[in-house]
Specification:
Blueprint: H1 11-31, H2 36-54, H3 58-71, H4 73-91, H5 94-103, H6 111-126, H7 129-146, H8 151-166, H9 173-182, H10 186-215, H11 223-235, H12 244-254, H13 259-277, H14 282-291, H15 300-306, H16 315-334, H17 336-345, H18 351-369, H19 372-389, H20 394-406, H21 416-425, H22 429-432, H23 437-452, E1 456-457, E2 464-465, H24 468-474
Antiparallel strand pairs: 1-2
Helix pairs in contact: 1-2, 2-16, 3-16, 4-9, 4-13, 4-14, 4-16, 5-6, 5-11, 6-7, 6-8, 6-10, 7-8, 7-21, 8-10, 9-19, 9-20, 10-20, 10-23, 12-13, 13-14, 16-19, 17-19, 18-19, 18-20, 18-23, 19-20, 20-23
Length: 478
């Protein structure tokens, strides 16, 4: 891509740019505590300077920013409707009902397993790992501390559950962005992710179950849990019929009805449920589409968990997505990604090495970009052409890039995810890393599929192939 008179960047130039990129992100986020949006904007000018040095015109570089943003425009529209959906689903009692049923699972002997499952349910219902950790996660940390459990272990269960939904829920911005960058349908991406997420949840659940029995102390007080359940019942009408809108949306997505009208319909069901079952007047219920839900119950658990949602709550995320997509467009245009891709392609000999390369590329996005959004861009842009050459379906690309980008996001202490999790949960990144069992198991499963050829779909097939020899033969011309 790019101006025919411009040259490709040298590896030394790319290395220098990436180092400066890392410096900008580190000092902006870790030292000066500036918003990630400003860091991404500053990085634009870093790549623009490189592009001018290579011989590109400013106008062409500006156009590449617009091109990059345009590729993710559908994801931005989806994020708008996701915000509306979350606001109305809280107001309508859908999300509170899910949380209430989840809290019923709490018992000292299975606390860690319950924490994993409750955070997984919350993150699937809300589509946010940050919101899950900052609300349900904080509650679980307090309960775990009262049980005398090691806080890094509890944090590991919280984060494992939170990222289960973050990379799987159709309501998650990272899920939507991944599907958009990989150019696959959201429901197809979710189905592909289930092959990794469900086994990882089961295996990590067994580990947390065993750990719970090992660390459990007799006579643990679970009155805090019952207080939270009582608070939910006091402030919301809880019942099985509250879950009908969620089931409707799931069915519509499963039938491959377009995402935007599905989310819009789900949002209107939330408005209807808020009016019919939660006692809100129609105008106030409609207002939650934009401004989200607001409550002052006097119970910290309720107020922290449910004062959120609405289109307004997604504006900062939308800004991040626009800036990240623009940065990806710049890096692609000036040849940074092409040069790195060409270097990386020399090591790709089959589906296994391609899977490893995608995960590594996404992980480096967290290291150098300090943001999960950047990791998804690097994972996609640096390896997507190799999937085309190997005739491997883009569902595998989306699965690998989200595994490498989102599962590793809380492992990088200076990334937005690492900083947030350590701050909110009160546990240092290096302390909770050994207990991110779902994250590590998910990465191991992704690599296992890649090197064995299992669940590696071809662009000409609908069924997975399980022959790694055939995969390697197809790569012989690289």
């Amino acid at each position: 891509m790019g101006n025919s008179q411009a040259r490709q960047p040298k590896l030394s130039e790319i290395f220098m740019v990436l180092v400066l990129f890392l410096v900008i992100m580190y000092f902006s986020l870790a030292v000066f505590n500036l918003p990630i949006q400003l860091s991404l904007l500053a990085s634009w000018f870093l790549i623009i300077f490189l592009g001018l040095r290579l011989g590109h015109s400013y106008n062409s570089l500006q156009s590449s920013i617009a091109t990059g943003i345009f590729t993710g425009l559908e994801a931005i529209l989806v994020i708008i409707f996701v915000g509306a959906l979350i606001g109305t689903w809280i107001a309508g009692g859908i999300v509170p009902t899910l949380i209430s049923y989840g809290l019923e699972l709490i018992h000292p002997s299975i606390f860690l397993l319950a924490t994993l499952l409750i955070c997984a349910i919350t993150s699937v219902a809300t589509g946010t790992s940050w919101g899950t950790a900052g609300t349900t996660g904080i509650a679980m940390m307090g309960i775990g501390e009262s049980f005398g459990l090691p806080l890094p272990l509890v944090a590991g269960a919280v984060i494992s559950g939170a990222y289960f939904g973050d990379k799987l829920s159709p309501l998650s911005d990272s899920t939507v962005l991944t599907a958009s960058l990989a150019r696959v349908e959201i429901i197809a991406h979710v189905r592909s992710m289930l092959l990794i997420s469900l086994p990882a949840l089961v295996i990590s659940g067994i580990l947390f179950f065993i750990a719970g029995f090992f660390f459990n102390k007799n006579g643990s007080d679970i009155s805090v849990v019952q207080e939270n359940i009582n608070a939910l019942n006091a402030n919301f009408n809880i019942g099985w019929y509250m879950l009908i809108p969620m089931l409707v949306v799931i069915v519509m997505l499963a039938k491959r009805i377009p995402t935007i009208p599905t989310l819009a319909f789900g949002s209107m069901l939330g408005v209807l449920w808020a009016s019919l079952f939660q006692g809100m007047d129609v105008i106030s219920a409609i207002a939650t589409l934009y401004s989200g839900f607001s409550i002052d119950s006097g119970t910290p658990f309720i107020d922290k968990l449910f004062n959120r949602g609405g289109i307004e709550s997604m504006l900062s995320v939308i800004c991040i997505m626009i800036l990240a997509l623009g940065l990806g467009g710049l890096m692609d245009y000036v040849g940074v990604l092409d040069t790195l891709r060409d270097r990386l392609a020399k090591f790709i000999k089959g589906s296994g090495s391609l899977t490893a390369a995608t995960i590594l590329s996404a992980f480096l996005g967290n290291v150098f970009g300090s943001a999960g959004y950047v990791s998804l861009i690097t994972g996609a842009k640096m390896t997507e052409k190799n999937y085309e050459k190997l005739k491997i379906d883009r569902r595998v690309l989306s699965r690998n890039m989200e595994s490498g980008g989102i599962l590793t996001a809380p492992m990088v202490g200076w990334s937005d995810n690492g900083i947030y999790m350590a701050t909110v949960l009160g546990v240092a990144t290096m302390s909770y890393i050994p207990f991110l069992w779902l994250n590590f198991i998910g990465l191991a499963i992704a690599l296992f599929y890649g090197f064995t050829g299992k669940f590696i779909w071809r662009t000409t097939d609908d069924e997975p192939t399980e022959n790694p020899i055939e995969t390697d033969d197809r790569a012989s011309n690289l």
